[in-house]
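Dear H.,

Thanks for agreeing to be a second pair of eyes. The structure we're designing against is below in token form, covering all 525 positions.
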């Protein structure tokens, strides 16, 4: 692989802006080759090697690899404006890559996160790539990129926005601002000052725009629309159970099917930046099939391959969870201090009332899940002993139980202030009750006068696939915060959610359990 050559080339766009790409060619001649294209904002030299093998590896398997700095980033000219700039630039880049003398005219695209979305935005009537492999991405800037249940991704959203702002400062030679950003991330002060820092340094950036939108009700959000014929192309979708963009990947899968495509969906034991090792071979096999053997008969049916969280094996989706199966919640009011008082029981009507007091001085921390700084599985046994977390625990299961889909908790809730959050976790308690393994989390944010009204509310969790063994128990844990996964709800509608401060109120959240239930919706419609 040492003999693989690389070079930088420029593409002159129609508006006079030059985009620069790094191109790797297979060793020992033999071209032209099918091309793999990644368009990204973080520097072509990095080439997303945090999650993908280096371009040299791909070139060693017979691909012309093109990694492009998007407009206004890295070595490319122009001003970076985020997703809205990419459609025209993507269309022109695809035409250019196909015209390279090293390319045989066949084009596949790959990349995750921002690099996933650049695979899906193009001008109408643009020739689609032969195949696409968008990973951990989505089309809806609200539900797939910035918020859960109306709550802004505090830790993730600010950290990512500051990363982009630091790239801008570096590009402008502004060392002072770059160091301020870097220091705030290293010493964790971004969790308190990050929104103000973004407002000062990058007020036009996507992250700050999303933050301000999330603070206002009834804001219109952008939902990107890939060309329909692109969605019908062979598509490999990679998601992770603890990746914040999983909803976006599932949505893409369904949109592809609706457009007449037959996509592959693989959801594995992954966070946004930590994948399973076999993912690279999965991608290589996909590209080999569609770029090196394009005449091979395609599988017409969509495919879902999922990692079972508890069994730790891959399996095909079978949607075995019965949507009509529900669990009732009951408590006499002591479920916050007595971990055995709140009951979760299948097909039982819910009853009782309960108050949860959220104290912003000591907010409930987020652990594990898809939004916290330490994403993934987590043991929350000690956390559930707090007096500001209500727990509802089942009896030992008499039979094995499979949970496959999207858990949903319906509650009748009101608060004594103009805002509250519901932060809920789903866990499995092992036979000896030595561990409470959190497998999924969900968020709901309510802001405004409606928070004081006794209304039915719905919390949607991150999707899950897990087998619960006979003798184990299920638990739901409900709290009023999940810091710093989301900001602290101050309980007043005229103050943005964020770090705790003197403006934050103690909030009493009243749960009327009658009429409440927990159930699991199918993963795929």
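And this is the sequence the design step returned. I haven't edited it by hand at all.
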């Amino acid at each position: 692989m040492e003999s693989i050559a690389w070079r930088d080339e420029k593409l002159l766009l129609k508006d006079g802006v030059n985009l620069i790409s790094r191109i790797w060619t297979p060793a020992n001649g033999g071209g032209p080759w099918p091309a793999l294209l990644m368009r990204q904002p973080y520097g072509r030299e990095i080439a997303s090697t945090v999650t993908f093998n280096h371009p040299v590896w791909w070139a060693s398997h017979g691909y012309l690899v093109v990694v492009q700095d998007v407009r206004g980033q890295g070595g490319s000219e122009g001003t970076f404006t985020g997703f809205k700039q990419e459609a025209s630039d993507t269309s022109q880049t695809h035409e250019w890559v196909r015209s390279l003398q090293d390319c045989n005219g066949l084009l596949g695209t790959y990349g995750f996160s921002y690099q996933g979305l650049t695979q899906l935005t193009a001008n109408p009537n643009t020739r689609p790539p032969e195949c696409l492999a968008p990973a951990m991405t989505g089309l809806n800037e609200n539900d797939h990129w910035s918020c859960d249940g109306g709550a802004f991704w505090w830790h993730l959203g600010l950290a990512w926005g500051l990363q982009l702002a630091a790239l801008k400062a570096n590009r402008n030679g502004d060392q002072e601002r770059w160091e301020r950003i870097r220091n705030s991330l290293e010493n964790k002060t971004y969790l308190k000052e990050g929104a103000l820092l973004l407002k000062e340094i990058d007020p036009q950036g996507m992250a700050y725009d999303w933050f301000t939108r999330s603070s206002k009700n009834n804001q219109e959000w952008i939902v990107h629309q890939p060309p329909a014929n692109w969605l019908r192309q062979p598509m490999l979708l990679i998601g992770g159970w603890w990746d914040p963009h999983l909803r976006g990947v599932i949505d893409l899968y369904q949109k592809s099917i609706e457009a007449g495509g037959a996509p592959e969906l693989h959801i594995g034991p992954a966070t946004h930046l930590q994948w399973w090792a076999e993912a690279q071979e999965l991608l290589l096999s996909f590209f080999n099939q569609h770029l090196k053997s394009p005449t091979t008969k395609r599988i017409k049916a969509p495919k879902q391959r999922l990692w079972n969280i508890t069994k730790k094996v891959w399996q095909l989706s079978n949607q075995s969870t019965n949507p009509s199966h529900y669990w009732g919640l009951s408590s006499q009011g002591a479920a916050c201090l007595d971990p055995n008082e709140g009951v979760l029981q299948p097909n039982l009507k819910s009853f009782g009332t309960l108050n949860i007091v959220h104290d912003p001085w000591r907010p409930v921390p987020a652990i594990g899940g898809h939004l916290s700084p330490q994403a993934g599985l987590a043991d929350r046994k000690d956390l559930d002993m707090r007096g500001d977390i209500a727990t509802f625990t089942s009896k030992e299961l008499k039979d094995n139980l499979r949970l496959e889909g999207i858990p949903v908790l319906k509650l009748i809730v009101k608060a004594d202030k103009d805002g509250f959050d519901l932060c809920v976790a789903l866990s499995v308690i092992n036979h000896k009750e030595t561990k409470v393994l959190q497998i999924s989390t969900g968020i709901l944010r309510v802001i405004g006068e409606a928070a004081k009204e006794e209304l039915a509310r719905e919390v949607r969790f991150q999707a899950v696939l897990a087998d619960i063994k006979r003798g184990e128990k299920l638990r739901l844990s409900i709290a009023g915060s999940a810091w710093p996964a989301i900001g602290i709800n101050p309980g007043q509608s005229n103050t943005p959610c964020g770090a705790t401060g003197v403006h934050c109120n103690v909030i009493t959240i009243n749960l009327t359990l009658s009429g409440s239930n927990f159930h699991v919706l199918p993963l795929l419609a």
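Two observations from my side: The radius of gyration is 24 Å. The CA atoms of residues 243 and 272 lie 5 Å apart.

Warmly,
E.
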